[in-house]
Every structure is written in C-alpha cells, then in structure tokens.
Amino acid sequence: MFEDLDGTRREVKGDRTTLVGRWDGLGPDEPKRDTLCYQVPLGGLVPRELDNVMAAGRNIGASHESAGAIRVMVNCMQAGQAAGVAAALAGKRGVRAAEADQVRTRLVEMGMPLL
C-alpha cells in the first residue's frame, strides 16, 4: 500500500489489480490535499565543527521536537539523498559551499517531491 501526501492511497493486490482511494477521509471526487510537509535546512546536515562531512539520517542537527518527525526511515533516506546531492554539487569546494537552491533544484529534477 502506498499513501501519498496528497491524500491518495494505492493498494496493489496479489492478482496485480490496483485499488485507488483516499487515506485522509475525503471522498474520491474531492480535490487532492496541498502537500503538508516541513523542510530541513541544509545547514542541519553540516556539523559545526567538522569540515567536509555531512550528517544525514538520525544524526542531523535538530531540536528534540523536530527529531521526532525526522527520525523515520523515509525521512532519513531523503536526508541522505539531499546530503549526497549537496556533496556532489559542492565538489572540491567543500560541503559548506553547497547552495540550498541548487540542491533543491537537483532533487526536484531527480523526482523528489518538494514544495
């Protein structure tokens, strides 16, 4: 079963048929939800006292309240992808030289759903 942020749900059955519906309680003809998500600043992936290191997953810099939301596996994977893209774009200039707008643009090009 796949549940998307827009409120839709897709379930693939054993016979390969797909059931499509909603997980948010709205009817099938209702408009899709605006994506409700939060953002993690690129600086949260860069440790203060380490050079050329990016932290992704459960060890990123966040408040106690934020950590509860970002510690789930899919968010850890997204942070890892963002860290990898940032490191690749920064290249030899070092990870502190990564520019958030460029990272965001590249992630969208790769198909990551961002606002």
The SS-based structural class is alpha+beta
Instruction: Give the biggest beta sheet.
Output: 3 strands, antiparallel
Low-confidence stretches: none
Order of SSEs, N→C? Answer: EEEHHH
Overall shape: it is: elongated
Cα end-to-end separation: 24 Å
Number of continuous helical runs: 3
DSSP summary, beta strand count? 3
Instruction: Order the strands across the largest sheet as they lie in space.
Output: 1-2-3
Residue-averaged pLDDT, rounded?
A: 86
* Percent strand: 5-15%
Determine the fraction of residues in helical runs and give it as a percent range.
Answer: 25-40%
Question: Rounded to an integer, what's the Rg over CA atoms?
Answer: 17 Å
